[in-house]
Specification:
Order of helices and strands: EEEEEEH
Radius of gyration: 16 Å
CATH class of the domain at 1-65: Alpha Beta
Helix content: 25-40%
Number of strands: 6
Shape: globular
Structural class: alpha+beta
CATH architecture of the domain at 1-65: 2-Layer Sandwich
Distance between the termini: 51 Å
Strand content: 35-45%
CATH superfamily of the domain at 1-65: Stage V sporulation protein G
C-alpha cells in the first residue's frame, strides 16, 4: 500500500497536539484526523480514535504491523516538518514594523 497524499489540515504550535492530517492511500482510500502530537520523547502520530462508554479511547483505524506504522509515521512527520519550515519562512519574509 502506497501513501499517495498527505494533507496538513490544521497546524497548531501552542499545544501538544501539533497538527491534524489526512492521509490518502493508493489514490483510493483516505484516513482523516490523524494527529501529530508532541510527547515526552518527541513527535509521534496518533490514529483517529473514539471514546468508549467506559471512557477509554480506541483507534478507529490503525496499521496492523509496526513496519507500516513506521512508514506512515516517517512520511507524516516529514510532511509536518516541511509545513513548519514553510511557515517559518513565511514569518521570516514578513517585514517588521521597523523596516516600514
Amino acid at each position: 500500500m502506497e501513501i499517495s497524499d498527505i494533507v496538513i489540515r490544521k497546524l497548531t504550535l501552542e499545544s501538544k497536539m501539533k497538527a491534524i492530517v489526512s492521509i490518502t492511500f493508493d489514490h483510493q482510500f483516505v484516513v482523516h484526523d490523524v494527529k501529530v502530537v508532541e510527547g515526552n520523547n518527541g513527535l509521534f502520530i496518533a490514529m483517529p480514535s473514539r471514546r468508549t462508554p467506559e471512557g477509554e479511547y480506541k483507534d478507529i483505524v490503525h496499521p496492523i504491523n509496526s513496519a507500516f506504522r513506521d512508514q506512515i509515521s516517517a512520511q507524516v512527520l516529514a510532511k509536518y516538518k516541511e509545513a513548519i519550515d514553510q511557515l517559518s519562512q513565511q514569518v521570516a519574509d514578513i517585514p517588521s514594523s521597523d523596516s516600514i
